[in-house]
Specification:
Blueprint: E1 7-11, H1 16-27, E2 31-36, E3 51-55, H2 61-68, E4 73-76, H3 89-109, E5 114-120, E6 130-132, H4 143-158, E7 163-169, E8 171-173, H5 187-197, E9 201-203, E10 210-215, H6 216-228, E11 237-241, E12 246-248, H7 249-264, E13 270-272, E14 285-287, H8 290-293, H9 303-321
Parallel strand pairs: 1-2, 1-4, 2-3, 4-5, 5-7, 6-14, 7-11, 8-10, 9-13
Antiparallel strand pairs: 10-12
Helix pairs in contact: 1-6, 2-3, 3-4, 5-9, 7-9
Length: 322
Amino acid sequence: MGKYLKNILITGGLGYLGGRMTKYFSDNRYSVLITTRRLEKDFPKNIPVNTSVVQVDYKSDEQLNEAMKGIDTLIHLAGPDAHTISKNPDSIILEHLELTGRLVHAAEVNDVKKIIYFSTIHVYGKNLKGTITEATSPIPVNPFAKAHLEAESIIGSQTKKVVSVIVRCSNSFGAPYFENEKCWKLVVNDLCKSAFQNGKLIIHSSGQGYRNFIAVDDVVRAIHHLLELKKVRAIPEIYNLGSSNTLRIIDIVRKIQKELKNSFNYDCPIETNKSSTESNNVGSFIFSINKIMQTCFTPAYGGKEIRSLLEQCKIKQQMVVH
């Protein structure tokens, strides 16, 4: 066994999930290479040990081939997120598909053993009903979801030698490792920030809609688990990744409120703010994670994640005040 357990390449490793994933794998004796479009002057200062960052032109096969040399596992996180807004959504989809195709080709050429593609619960559509399993027919609505579903099909059709895993993740929450503004738009993150910034937990809806939430710590543990899972099937394996319980937004807000009281001795009121455009469809659904649980992975309750998220929000607000 060498110095490192494995060499991992993370596209989008400077982003919200990528940052937490990079830190986790670095702490667990993996060698991590992050590829990014950012200029070197814009790299964060807190790069973990065992980690290197390189700027690449994702349209250059030569640069991608160079990055893939000696890599065991590619974790593909680069691409649009739920907050990506564009006047030309077709260009977002096309760009993501071209990137995914190039990455898969470079992985095949350089004998990468496994690709883990990070997809989303949103491929199943809006206003989810009943039980959602990996066999549920996807009906993506927005460009972000369509881009991910089409990228899944590219991985399915183009991976011949590389073992491929597709993860359809629900709504994550948690503190970022690298500074990241977009992550504060996530529901739970936004609520925790509001507690200290506004002195109240502001829900931008009635709070009656159901969501499936998962702590980022559980997300990175699941990716680690799938990375080490022995699998030889040529066709991609798809896994839903979320928590075992689907909650109303008001329920998660009450959990945050309770955590504020218990850990910070802070009585924080809740304010709902239903918009006129809000859907009245607030039915519950089950996001089945039985398949990944059958591989011996179990998500933990995200109480620890909420605490550390609130701690970071409190510190950030204190820095603003002073």
